[in-house]
Amino acid sequence: MTSNGLLYVVATPIGNLSDITLRALEILKSVDAIAAEDTRHTSGLLSHFGIAKKLIAVHEHNEHQSAEKLLALLLAGQNIALVTDAGTPAVSDPGAIVVDLVRKAGIKVVPIPGASAVIAALSASGIAQNGFLFYGFLPASGSARRKALETLKAQTVTLVFYEAPHRIIESVVDMAAVLGADRRITIAREITKTFETIYSCELSKAEAWLQADANQQRGEFVLLVEAAATKDAAEIPEDTVRVLKLLLADLPLKQAVQLTTEITGEKKNVLYELALSLKSDQ
């Protein structure tokens, strides 16, 4: 009886081919076939590393049909590597439909991690805020994009987006209008490539910076937008402030914040910022 094959979800370089992992190369060399978003693009990657494999096209227009084909191969015992043009399959790229079908069929899916544009951009941005929300690509139409941004406006973590060059101007203009012109944005483009650029400014100034040099409107973008400001101390009810002050007099800061949260129902991050301010004033 033939045992099922394995599906490897393989991350590929986001620009610099040297960023591919040794494990990824081992997998690409060992599998029976490679399912690729763009077979021409993947052929170039494989050729660079001297790998020759059967390629199967799996893109947004044929993913459902290709998923069935890949499942049949896996059930026949073949091992398959799933790749996209850059980065990790199923993360703002095709792949999720394939992975879902294969997992539901009881076949093992093995992630092979690698380069990430999101993590690379965050690591070089200098943003110290805790946590981030990765949204991916915003809607293409202006009204839908602004509506999506409205739902994200109050998030108190860094907002991370992908954006295409032909929509970059419209997107930063909408972000300034909806999220607030005074918020800071870090624009990371062409990460790991020759013209890699990482630039930070207020959202109100982002459009002008992009318009000043057409070259800065080219390539693939990661946009990191500053988190929404937490509630100002003046907005916190006086009774809540009084409880926090009383607890801070006898308890460590974290414990005082935790108890105040439980007593008043106020958000913990808001009280933590207030507690730091009160301690500083003392």
Describe the protein's architecture and organization.
The protein is of the alpha/beta class and 282 residues long. The chain folds into 3 domains: 7-112, Cobalt-precorrin-4 Transmethylase, domain 1 (3-Layer(aba) Sandwich), CATH 3.40.1010; 119-225, Methyltransferase, Cobalt-precorrin-4 Transmethylase, Domain 2 (2-Layer Sandwich), CATH 3.30.950; 233-281. The protein is 43% helix and 17% strand. It contains 11 helices and 10 strands. The protein has a 5-stranded parallel beta sheet with strand order 3-2-4-1-5, with helices on both faces. A 5-stranded mixed beta sheet has the order 6-7-10-8-9. It starts with 6 loop residues before the first strand and ends with a helix.
Assess the beta-strand content as a share of residues.
15-25%
Rg to the nearest angstrom?
24 Å
The CATH topology of the largest domain turns out to be Methyltransferase, Cobalt-precorrin-4 Transmethylase, Domain 2
Total number of β-strand segments? 10
Along the chain, the helix and strand elements come as EHEHEHEHEHEHEHEEHEHHH
Tertiary shape: globular
Assign the CATH architecture of the largest domain.
Answer: 2-Layer Sandwich
**Which parts are unreliable, with pLDDT below 50 for 5 consecutive residues or more?**
none
Overall mean pLDDT score? 92
Q: What is the rounded distance between the termini? A: 75 Å
Main beta sheet strand tally, sense and closure: 5 strands, parallel
**Tally of separate helices:** 11
Main CATH class of the largest domain: Alpha Beta
User: Strands of the largest sheet, in order across it?
Assistant: 3-2-4-1-5
Q: Superfamily at the CATH H level of the largest domain?
A: Tetrapyrrole methylase, C-terminal domain
